[in-house]
Amino acid sequence: MSKFSRRRLLQTASAAIAAPTASALGQSASVITGRKFRAWVSRGTGTGRTKLEDVTLRPIGGRQIVVRTEGTNLCYSNTTTVLGLPGMFAGPLTRMAIIDGHGGVGVVEAIGPDVRRVQVGDRVCVSGTPQCGNCYQCLRGRADMCQFLGRQGPNDLVPIADMRDGTPVYASSHIGGLAELMVTFEEWVVPVFTKAAAVDLAMALSCVSVAGLGASTSQVLASIAPGATAAIVGCGPLGLSAVQGARIAGASRIIAIDPIKARRDVALKIGATDALDPNAEGDRLVAKVRAMTSTPNNRLWSGGRDAGGLLGGAGADFVIEGAGADRAKPRAEAGPDPTGVLPLRQAYEMCAPGGHVITTSLPSGNISLSAVFFSIGGRTHHAGQAGGANPMRDIPRFVAMLDARQYDAKSLATRVVPLDRMLEAYEEVLYRTTVTAIMTA
Ligand SMILES: [Zn+2]
Ligand SMILES: [Zn+2]
User: Among 58, 128, 145, 354, which residue has the least CB neighbours within 10 Å?
Assistant: First the structure.
């Protein structure tokens, strides 16, 4: 028998490698309790349901992490719950005191004893989408659909702080970004090793930016090929991140579509080659995109794309849709359909046969499409959370894009406010008078 055994070799090698880093298998807990912090706490219904409160941190344990918030994006999808608008989801959650805000960036202040992913002092993204690594979806490469994301009902949330009168306070989405401290779980946190400014980092790693960059560059849902044509339907912070992702991926033509002129202007500044106003184009919008993407020629037997229709070749190779429904009538230019269904349908129709449609928005109602178009038209539809991004794999890449100045965060963060001015900035987000807003804490 050889005096070299595989097992002995591995033991020797791992001892040599692991000796200086024995803590890699675990780390001692760093638990802080009783700390006071300011938080926007929502409770009840109607306007005025969200108030700035002084709360007291509860002890943490297990896989919990306390993050000192540097910045968080004021996501449009939370406007109804934060501002207490009509149509707000009513139910048991409205009777609980909850810190809203599903994402942010900051610095780890304390960890529970079972945390391995991050250490105290790490800068982290608290991702809008978790990645547990163990669920059915994570195991199949679809961490954007991680099943932990759905575990945020009234019985799933745990109290993380107390109000002065003893009322327990919970963190929405296990995150609670609208506060000086976020108390979350390991699965929601991604360490980021960067010196980027807090506002830039909060913008680049917001739920919507991750979704836009994910849809355009994560290659989970679809891979934009260099030289391909792309259309981006809806240019809020998600669509404007997708515009940048399409540029970074090397698309040759990037058509940005949005009713708001200020957003089309930003799109042109950060990488779109063309910008279209869906109100001005009306029923001609789809035909216009098809005409603009009839490249490199329109000769049938010369590799070109002919006029379109079911089997024609015209249309964008990749369409990323990020329009969604209006939560209130915009004070900026309103789009042609407040439900968001029309832009969703147009996104499908402007895609080339053989092309890919990636949808990311929150529309309302039902969609109807030409059945034969849908059945054999050759378009592939991809749906997912976070544009298909896998947080632990993709967020560090998005940080690299920011650090390398490939991703322009400043052009998207058109409003930046301190914590105590969160509500006024959220109104601007609601009425679409800013691209988005970043709250610093
Ligand atoms: Zn969001
Ligand atoms: Zn999972």
Answer: 354
Residue by residue, DSSP assigns 17-44 as HHGGGGGGG----B---S-EEEEEEE-S
DSSP letters of 65-81?
A: EEEEEEEEE--GGGHHH
Q: Is the peptide bond before 296 cis (omega within 30 degrees of 0)?
A: yes
How far is the centre of ligand 2, averaged over its atoms, from the C-alpha of 238 (Å)? 23
Q: In the chain, count H helices and then E strands.
A: 13, 18
| Pick from 210, 3, 172: nearest CA to 78 | 172
Distance 205 CA to ligand 1 centre (A): 11
Cβ contact 406:248 at 8 Å: yes
d(CA 215, CA 399): 16
Task: Point out the ligand nearest to the CA of residue 143.
Answer: 2
287-308 pLDDT tens trace: 999 999 987 788 888 888 876 6
- Between the CA of 411 and the centroid of ligand 1 the distance, in Å, is 18
Distance from Cα 138 to the centre of ligand 2, integer Å: 4
pTM exceeds 0.90: yes
- The protein residues having their C-beta less than 5 angstroms from ligand 1 (an ion) are 75, 77, 207
